[in-house]
Amino acid sequence: MISEDEYREACDAKKAAELVINEFHKQELNTFEERLKSGRPFTDDELTYAAYARCRCGQGLAYSNDCGIDHYWECSAILKGTPDLNVAHDPKYPFSCYSIKSEGQPSAYGHTTRPAGVIANRQSAIANRQ
Ligand SMILES: [Zn+2]
Q1: pLDDT in tens, 64-117
Q2: pTM above threshold 0.70
Q3: CB-based contact 47:63 (threshold 8 Å)
Q4: CA 60 to ligand 1 centroid distance, Å
Q5: Could you tell me the distance, in angstroms and rounded to a whole number, from the CA of residue 106 to the centre of ligand 1?
Q6: How close is the Cα of 84 to the center of ligand 1, in Å?
C-alpha cells in the first residue's frame, strides 16, 4: 500500500520534473526563435515538407523541424533563402488555422513536395502508366 508521504513525494517529484521539462522546451523554442531572427537559411534536412500543398510559386510548403506548435507553414523557397522575387508567394499558414498534411504521415502515402520527392513521385507515376 502506498502511504500518503510516498504519494506527496511522487507529486513533488512530478512538479520538479515538469519545471525541468517546461524549461527545456522554452530553451529549444528560444534557440529556434534566435535561428529564425538570424535569417540564416534552412536546409532541406531541417524542414518538414507538405505532402501536397504548394506555394503559388510552385515550391512546397514547409516548416522548420525545430519550431513550436504555434508556428506556421511557409513557402520552402523563402525558408531556404531562395525565393523567386519575381513571383508572388503565399502568406504564412498558422498550424492552428490550417490543417495541411505533412510528408511522413501514413495517410500521405509517401507523397511530398520536397524537391527530390517530386522527382521520385513523378518517376513512379510515369512507371505506373507504362
Ligand atoms: Zn513561394
Answers
A1: 998 988 999 999 999 999 999 999 999 999 999 999 999 999 999 999 999 975
A2: yes
A3: yes
A4: 8
A5: 26
A6: 7
